[in-house]
Amino acid sequence: xxxxxxxxxxxxSMLGEQRRILVALSGGKDSVALLYALVLLREELSLSxxxxxxxxxxxxxxxxxxxxxxxxxxxxxxxxxxxxxTVDIPKLSGGKGIEECARIHRYRLLREAADGFCADRIxxxxxxxxxxxxxxxxxxRGTAAxxxxxxxxxxxDGIIRPLILCTEAxxxxxxxxxxxxxxxxxxxxxxxxxxxxxxxxxxxxLRKVNPSFEDAFASLAASLRLDRAYFHDALPxxxxxxxLLASLPPAILSRLLxxxxxxxxxxxxxxxxxxxxxxxxxxxxxxxxxxxxxxxVCFLCAGKRARFLNGHEQAxxxxxxxxxxxxxxxxxxxxxxxxxCLLLTKEADSEDVKxxxxxxxLFIHQAVKSEGEVGKMLVRLRADGDRYRFGGLTxxxxxxxxxxxxxxxxxxxxxxLCDENGIFWIPFLPPRDGSLPxxxxxxxxxxxxxx
Length: 451
Description:
This protein is an alpha+beta fold. The protein is about 45% helix and about 20% strand. It folds into three domains: about 1-230, Rossmann fold (3-Layer(aba) Sandwich); about 235-320, Uridine Diphospho-n-acetylenolpyruvylglucosamine Reductase, domain 3, CATH 3.30.465; about 325-450, no CATH class. The strands form five sheets. It has a five-stranded parallel beta sheet, with helices on both faces. A four-stranded antiparallel beta sheet has the order 9-13-16-17, with no helix packed on it. A four-stranded antiparallel beta sheet has the order 10-11-18-12. Helix 6 (about 130-140) crosses helix 8. It is elongated.
């Protein structure tokens, strides 16, 4: 097993410059074997070793006390500094998602312990058997291809898995050879948990078909990780242009959506989520449509725009606009309460126009008579009963915008530009009759930047 650990450390460039490793030590056979193996390699590889035990307060106190006692005994014996931390997972989780809550807080405490010891790597005791079981677990949940990449040998945040080339059988044999004591979690035999069922019931059946099934899974995972790395770099940048996204080949679009989600949010997308997003992009989204995703995220399609929104962004979008705002307009730039911007300028290609085009995704341009001819201007939001005359008829603003099939979230935040004679322009609609510029007369260019 030591040779496999040496190979993993070398092949996956696991060691940092300082070679200071914090081992996540639960007291189970895997973590005990990992720590002892690194102790045996300590002098050879010039390692500085530390350990951290996290008590989640999920099991009986008598059991956790024995776990802690064993970890303390082994670390004293092997001269490894130990940090013992406690977190009340049942209380923090509120009875929901205990495993995920435990994982999040365990890694948080491991990072804090690593900082305390000035360790530049955190080693966890995941084996190739664990990786194969994780792939099976994801497969049964309808994962996308990334879910079949297994447990990564190295993570960008300094997490390493030195046992990733070792099977559970390797660990058992190593513990037996060196007479290593370890603790057994009584819940591991409870096959009502999906992962335990896979370990206790499914893995033995797979081993009958292929005694080295972990190697087969590891080969698949390695191949898929190569594909993932290539596509991650080769994919185009994410665009909020719905038509552009919908025009991409499905193999590219699915990976692009997954990459964008993973880069911004915590959660796990399934094939079903990705397929639903692709169908939404291909559908008629004149009216706003939303798809709920893990992590409180939604995928929003509205008009020609498609984007991911977190919870705060959704709340801001859904909030009723401040109907009380009414701002005077003059030449120059005017920031609106919804984050959009109005620019009034004599030059349609001014430096301000170019600058704002780089800030905002979308804009609308309308040329009207010069400021003096239009009259004193102000901007406000729509109000019930708004009407103005264009195309020879006095029309309802609400009905005209509905006919444009603009998303509600966009309609309710549109600015209404008025002068002494009432409304003279609203983005997406024509200007008031008599407001268009005349030939050889001074022109006022109005830009509405948004998105």
